[in-house]
Amino acid sequence: MNRGMTGKAADENRSLATRSGIRPAALKRSQYTLSLLAEGQRTGLLDSRDVSGVQHQFLLLLHNLIRRHTQGESSSVTTETAEGLLASAMYAVDAYLWSMQDPEKAIACLKTTDIVTLHAEGVEHVRQRLEETKRLYHKVKTQKLDVPVDAYNTTIDESLPIFIKKYNILFDARNTMASIDYPLAVDDMSLQGVFYIKQYLEHLRLENQFCRQWEREDVLRLLKNLGRVCKFDFRIELFNIFELVFQHALFSVLAGGDARSILMTPYQYERLERMFTDAGASTVGTMIDKAIDRLLEQLPAQEPGTKPYMKTCCRDLVRRIVNAAENRQLQAVILTNREEAVKPFVLTLDTEDRMSDVRLRRLLDDIMRSESKEEKVRIIREHFSSLHDVLDLLESDCLYGDEYEALYAELGDMDLAILCKIVFYEELRGAFVDLHDVIQEKQEAERDWQNRLIAFLKRLDDSRIRAIDEWIGNIDYEQLHFY
Question: Please, what's the b/e burial string for 398-427 (b: 16 or more CB within 10 A of its CB; e: otherwise)?
């Protein structure tokens, strides 16, 4: 097997490449072989016969893969299947040629080595990366953070194992085979297949190692502060935990505190507000760079590559700080830890406290038979105390017209806040969203009870809406499972 050019021919081609100039920007990682062919032909390292020969060899390789895919029973498959098999073959060849880390050598290899041989080398290279990925996954699994964030847990516990189990090196190497929902702070989405998952796990392992340096209770408090300020349930939202922890460690350092403290006090917030107000992007960038150095001095035992990873994360942070400062909304970026003015509402009646289906149907029948709205509201007040039962009632359409208003008029601010959170969930996802504006701008919802609620809320005075809005920020959704 000839792995590349040697001797005088190689020297001549290397000299030609230097003169002609291979353009690194023209070499695409996801289509490496094709871009090598194009660049090799442009620079004169390959001629049209070389390119045609490579293309013909790929067609012969595809024919062989089709026979193997059908276990020798057929030499024809659907166009979609053939395209997938060819893409998988090229993925393996791409992987091998990329591993050379020298485009001139890779082009020479394409000129002198048959594609079947390059494919076999590529398949082995991909197999080795898969084994590395399995070992990486084991490390990530054992170092997993104990946080109630659905996307994070589902990705590690379900999605990544699906990839490892189903990944097909020979016939579908380009596919990731799983839905990866949890967003990384830094992610190269141009990668595919095992190379994407391996990179994902490398970054996730770095993020986990960093976040494990803080007490779990502090991390959970920070997550709850995020949910409170942004008015969403942090358990079901898509956000990056590392980014949140890292940024608040930076803010602590900038405010004169310890990097191990990620819960900002009002005093620290005021100090940071003074620092960032009227500061341009260049000044803020310098502040952040110095804070990273101080943070790493206080937390010296970091994974290799942590500092450049942090630097990349901070590109967007600088812009967010500058924009928030200009709009007087730094509270959306710097989450202040504060004592709750009122004890947050925790539903004591969770899913286990729901009434039986038989009892619910019986009560719904009683409500529908009632002749007055006052009687219907009385039954509801006396027998419905679980949020889930109230939602079942509303979804059953057993109330009509002003009967909804009669029910809503009996609800307290806290109860209305929960219903608002359900009806306006998407609109309320974000800091400093004004409930009054959300209500006034909402034109129509999916269900009648929701439209009746919107109409009812529009008639409330501003002070009542502000009280409901305050409850939305104070509700603890630990036991709410309405999504």
Answer: bbeeebbbbbbeebebbbbbbbbbbbbeeb
**From CA 7, how far away is CA 282, in angstroms rounded?**
52
Closest CA to 315 of 294, 284, 291: 284
Q: 416 near 408, Cβ under 8 Å?
A: yes
CA-based nearest residue to 62, from 92, 31, 83: 83
Print burial letters for 297-306: b (CB count within 10 Å at least 16), e (below 16).
Answer: eebeebeeeb
Of 185, 186, 243, nearest to 219 by C-alpha is 243
142-to-162, 244, 393 alpha-carbon distances in Å: 17, 22, 44
Helices (H), 70-112: 79-99, 103-112
Give the SS3 label for residue 75.
coil
Distance CA(370)–CA(407), nearest Å, equals: 14
Average pLDDT over residues 335-355: 57
- Residue 3, pLDDT above cutoff 50: no
319-334 pLDDT, tens digit per residue, is 999 999 998 889 989 9
Q: Is residue 5 predicted with pLDDT exceeding 60?
A: no
Asked if residue 260 lies in contact with residue 299, where contact means CB atoms within 8 angstroms, the answer is yes
Q: Tokens 């003015």 sit at which residue? A: 341
